[in-house]
């Protein structure tokens, strides 16, 4: 899961990032309004954790930008401004949830998972597509009801493909989703080829339909219709 944390308190940033990274999430940081707005324009996120009080602007104004640019992105407001008006205003603007500071990190993590289930999996604990069933919280995949062993990146790739099925996915989008801010360190996209090739091989060897198709010079698509 790729998460953007918009928060200017350094210690808060570190504790949330470390806690959520244990579950293999990619957590990017924006320290102020301007850097957050730039990231929202360029990148896609599964969930955005948003403080209301930010340097250079209001988090409430960012909600408008997020809903305009990325309407399906989940938003959880995390704020010390525990006023009723802020809560109502943020939810009216399109935020999905509101968690006042201070909060327990396990509760934040649970709310993120619940939000993702509602937005992406119709509230279910698993994602089912034909012969494939994915259990995100357990990071487990079944094909024809039998488990297959995937690496962490292969698992993330499969989830991303299925949640974006029938879309053309460019290689840079895959890399940004799987590596976040660290994607800038790669000189080329060749390594993504091996991750996709290995995932495809494991699925086919498990007698899964060959859904992943390469688009020369562009990227890939998880094609569900012939």
Automatic annotation (TrEMBL):
4-aspartylphosphate: modified positions: 51
Question: Which InterPro entries does the UniProt record give?
Answer: CheY-like_superfamily, OmpR/PhoB-type_DNA-bd, Sig_transdc_resp-reg_receiver, WalR-like, WH-like_DNA-bd_sf
Q: Transcription as a keyword?
A: yes
Domain of life of the organism encoding this protein: Bacteria
List, for all copies, the residue spans of the domain called Response regulatory.
2-116
> What ranges are recorded for DNA binding?
124-224
Q: Which Pfam families match?
A: Response_reg, Trans_reg_C
The keyword Transcription appears for this protein: yes
Tell me which UniProt keywords the record has, alphabetically. Answer: DNA-binding, Phosphoprotein, Transcription, Transcription regulation, Two-component regulatory system
* All copies of domain OmpR/PhoB-type, residue ranges: 124-224
Q: What's the protein name?
A: Response regulator transcription factor
Which species does this protein come from?
A: Flavobacterium jumunjinense
């Amino acid at each position: 899961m790729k998460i953007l944390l918009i928060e200017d308190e350094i210690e808060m940033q570190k504790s949330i990032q470390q806690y959520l990274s244990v579950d293999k999430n990619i957590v990017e940081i924006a320290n102020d309004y301007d850097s957050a707005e730039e990231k929202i324009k360029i990148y896609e996120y599964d969930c955005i954790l948003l403080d209301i009080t930010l340097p250079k602007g209001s988090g409430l104004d960012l909600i408008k930008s997020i809903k305009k640019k990325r309407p399906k992105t989940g938003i959880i407001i995390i704020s010390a401004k525990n006023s009723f008006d802020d809560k109502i205003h943020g939810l009216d603007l399109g935020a999905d949830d509101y968690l006042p500071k201070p909060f327990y990190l396990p509760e934040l993590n649970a709310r993120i998972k619940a939000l993702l289930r509602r937005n992406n999996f119709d509230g279910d604990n698993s994602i089912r597509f034909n012969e494939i069933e994915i259990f995100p919280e357990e990071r487990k995949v079944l094909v024809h009801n039998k488990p297959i062993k995937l690496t962490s990146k292969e698992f993330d790739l499969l989830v991303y493909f299925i949640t974006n099925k029938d879309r053309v996915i460019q290689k840079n989008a895959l890399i940004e989703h799987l590596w976040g801010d660290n994607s800038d360190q790669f000189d080329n996209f060749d390594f993504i080829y091996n991750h996709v090739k290995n995932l495809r091989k494991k699925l086919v060897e498990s007698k899964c339909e060959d859904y992943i198709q390469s688009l020369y010079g562009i990227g890939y698509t998880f094609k569900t219709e012939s």
